[in-house]
Write a sequence for this structure.
């Protein structure tokens, strides 16, 4: 019998599950914006059945990596031309059922995405994301939340895609649609986003979202890479979380966020896999400290205990599962853990004792990705 180390299950607080189809592909371009066009090509070919198939594989990979709960930031809502499916929540239901199929808790962060940019209506594939108004989005999101009221494995939360994608006057509607539920938003991932927001409103994204009542203990700023000191103070004073996705932020050349400044201001750190370049929350946790070392020239900004909390309990709480104590087992005989007293600094996803058949997960995922690219 394999000797094991007991460990809290991991919380993947920011996922776009369909991005898994992009892993290992040469998408071209040298910026985030070029990568985005290839991502849109994948989004354009999904339907509920294919999204479900892809999500079963991608969520299965997360389970194999020790993830107990995922925050799925979901915005591909409607048919290719923007027409709702017969069930307007068919795509969200596909994601929930995929998570349940592999035994993964899910916070489905139903995302409002209304425009291509300030003053520009949704265009191209973005029409799939748009409900037509913030009020229509809220009605659909509330219907989905009602379906899962009382479930112990599903939370339906809300999300603002970004200040780029939701107009200033509609932000309060999104912020108030699901009071008490988790509320997440992409914030200041790119300098261009900040510049556009300042030009349109005279405010940074954090300030604009504060005006709309977004920030508070139930809220999470995703990425939060390019913040001003005043932005950091707002997030800290509000008790919001900041979800860092270091592998994706490096892969997309986003930058290194101010994790220490946010923590010291009062914000809580959580972690995500985002575009699933890798699915390894141990690696994401270590990368927060390693990136801080590169940026500051100093070691030891984050302790193993702090990073473990970010990857587990604090992440669970940010997704509406506070107090849930899921557990995983690590292989005590792993060469990576030999002689190690603190798993956070050494463990990888490969050290998690599997609860699913890795071969079956891999085969299903390979088939789903192949079908995506056949359609693209």
């Amino acid at each position: 019998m394999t000797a094991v180390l007991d460990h809290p299950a991991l919380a993947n607080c920011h996922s776009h599950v369909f991005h898994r189809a992009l892993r290992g592909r040469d998408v071209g371009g040298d910026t985030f914006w070029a990568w985005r066009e290839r991502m849109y090509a994948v989004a354009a070919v999904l339907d509920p059945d294919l999204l479900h198939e892809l999500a079963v594989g991608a969520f299965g990979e997360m389970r194999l990596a020790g993830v107990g709960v995922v925050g799925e930031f979901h915005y591909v809502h409607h048919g290719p031309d923007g027409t709702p499916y017969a069930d307007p929540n068919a795509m969200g239901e596909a994601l929930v059922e995929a998570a349940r199929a592999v035994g993964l808790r899910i916070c489905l962060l139903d995302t409002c995405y209304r425009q291509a940019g300030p003053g520009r209506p949704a265009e191209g594939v973005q029409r799939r994301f748009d409900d037509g108004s913030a009020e229509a989005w809220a009605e659909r999101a509330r219907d989905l939340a009602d379906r899962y009221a009382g479930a112990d494995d599903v939370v339906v939360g809300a999300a603002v895609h970004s200040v780029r994608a939701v107009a200033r006057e509609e932000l309060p509607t999104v912020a108030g649609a699901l009071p008490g539920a988790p509320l997440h938003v992409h914030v200041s991932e790119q300098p261009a986003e900040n510049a556009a927001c300042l030009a349109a409103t005279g405010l940074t994204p954090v300030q604009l979202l504060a005006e709309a009542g977004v920030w508070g203990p139930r809220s999470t700023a995703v990425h939060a890479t390019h913040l001003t000191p005043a932005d950091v103070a707002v997030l800290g004073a509000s008790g919001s979380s900041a979800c860092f996705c270091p592998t994706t932020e490096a892969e997309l050349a986003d930058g290194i966020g101010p994790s220490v400044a946010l923590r010291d201001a009062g914000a809580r750190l959580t972690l995500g896999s985002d575009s699933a370049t890798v699915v390894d929350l141990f690696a994401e946790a270590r990368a927060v400290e390693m990136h801080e070392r590169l940026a500051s020239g100093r070691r030891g900004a984050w302790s193993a205990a702090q990073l473990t909390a970010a990857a587990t309990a604090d992440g669970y709480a940010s997704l509406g599962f506070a107090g849930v104590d899921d557990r995983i087992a690590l292989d005590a005989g792993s060469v990576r853990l030999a002689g190690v007293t603190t798993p956070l600094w050494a463990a990888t996803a490969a050290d998690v004792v599997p609860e699913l058949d890795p071969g079956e997960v891999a085969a299903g995922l390979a088939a789903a990705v192949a079908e995506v690219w056949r359609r693209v």
Remarks:
- The two ends are 46 Å apart (CA to CA).
- The chain has a mean pLDDT of 96.
- The longest strand covers residues 67-74.
